[in-house]
Structures are given as structure tokens and as C-alpha cells.
Fold these 2 entries.
Entry 1:
Amino acid sequence: MEEPIPHRVVHLNGPQIRTLAHPLRARLLGLLRVDGPATATTLARLLATNTGATSYHLRQLADVGLVAEETDLGTGRQRFWRAAHDASTWRPTDFDDDPDARAAAEWIETHQLRFLAEQAESWVAAQQTAPLAWREAAMIGDATLTLSPTRLRALNDELWDLIERYRQDPALREEPEAAQIHVFLASFPRAEEIR
């Protein structure tokens, strides 16, 4: 049996979250995490920007340890970059004493919500031409629960543990028709309920 792939998670600090709170940097890191190592030229083409801007922002991400040069792939002047981690995490309270980092975290959360909406809309537009098995398996839904903060935290931890079990199982990637799947989790209290 194949060994599970370790999941590298970085708990973002203030400088990292402030650096990541930029549209191009967030997209660069996302592409490197999903598609693997790439050159600044390739990333610029994929993101419809110029190589100079892409190179600059990759170096900014590297300065705070979010991306790294993939030295095994580069030849001569061609530099490959890779994500240094598979995922980023933080708690909203991590930056209570740092207004700039708190604003950066809020920007990233808003950016992630826009990305969720874009991906969901893309699926809805494409689903009628997708194979039946994918149309029957995909889901967009919501639920309302009544929980304490402690129970909400436990629910989130349990959901992430389940996702991690699926992610670490190498046999799942070898199944026929296997494809990358977006899983977005958002669990938060109704604003009008919090006093």
C-alpha cells in the first residue's frame, strides 16, 4: 500500500498574511498549489499578466516562505517555483492586535468567497454537458444548525479530518474518472444571532 502524502499546512503569521493579501499573489499561490511547479513565464500566460510582474510577486511570496524555487526542475535561467505548503490557515483572533494583518485576513476571506462563487457558477454553467456520474455526485447546498462556539469548532475539526483522510488516500487518485474536486467549507453564525 502506498504511503499517504503528508499535508503541509502553514499557520500564517502577520508578514505572510499581509504579503498574501494581493490579487495576483493569491492567484499565483493557488495555481502552484493546484497545478504544481511552474515558471514565471508559464504562470504569467495562465493569469494573463506579464512575466516581470509575476516574477516580482513570486519573489515577494518567497521572501515570507510561501513559495520556494524548485531547483531540480530549472535549467539555466529558467526558474521553477512551487508552493511551500499545501494549505494556509489562521484564526481570526490571531491578528486582533495587528490591524494591518487583520485587514489582510479579511481581504483574503472575501477573495476566497468570490473564488467560491466563480467556481460554483462555472460548474452550474457546465454541468448539463458533464457526464451523468459527475452531475449526480456534485452538490451545492447549505444547512442551519444550532451550536455553541465549542461545538462549531468541533464540527469544523471533524470535517477537516474527514477531508484529510480522503486527501491522503493515494488509491483515490488512481480511480477511473478521478479529478480534482473543489471543497469549500464555510461555517459561521448568523450575524443577527450574535449579541
Entry 2:
Amino acid sequence: MSTPPVPDVLSHVDAVKAALTAAGLSVFVGGTPAGAWTPPDKFAVLHPDAGTAVRESLADERTTLDCLMQITCVGGDVERALWVAGRVRRALAKPLAVDGRVCWRPEDLGGPPVQRDDDITPPLYFVPVQYRICSAPA
């Protein structure tokens, strides 16, 4: 009897990052490096959670992954932040490609309105958008 595959959240983070990069976005994970932002740049910051290995049956094989990823869309003005949000939505409108997994199409959970960050000079604008990512063994 073989051991069922345990889902790996990092491969899903890599898949989201690859999809966003392919859409022409600069993508950072967990935050931006010092000096990474200069006006009028626009970029996305991916904030993943560790996910949950969900039971697929009464056999208690936890092979399905369910995780939340927040993508903070950042720009030098409101329009740039919304442009990034639009690119993110287009990039995540189809299932992700993760080796050995079958992925559902990411579920867009929305987020709050665009906000201005005055703690940075010059200020920037950001809008966090959350996605639910789910997959099962192929």
C-alpha cells in the first residue's frame, strides 16, 4: 500500500507567482525588498497562508489542499493599483499548473477598496485581493 501524496503549499505559491509573472507583473512574496519600489512602478505582493490538508474521504487521507492567498496590488496611483488588480484577475482566471496535482480555478474572494499608504514617500496605493486555491492529486 502506498502513502497518499501530501499537498505542498510551496508548489502552489510558485504556480501563482509564475502565472502573475507570465501576465507581465513584478511579483514579490511576503513583502518588498528595500528599495524595490520607485514611482511610477506597479507590482504585486503575494501573501500565502500555509493551507490546510483536507480529508478526501472517510479513510482520512489528507491529500486535498485548500489555501488562501492574498495578492496585494500596488501602484503609484489608484489607476496603477487597479491595473495590477486587473492583470491578477486575468492571470488567475484559469486553473494553476502544479506538477502531480489537479487544480480548481482560483476562487476570487475580492477585497477592500483601494487604499493610500502615506507611510512611504512618495505615497503609494494598494488593494489586497484574496484567492482561494484548491487542488487534489492528479
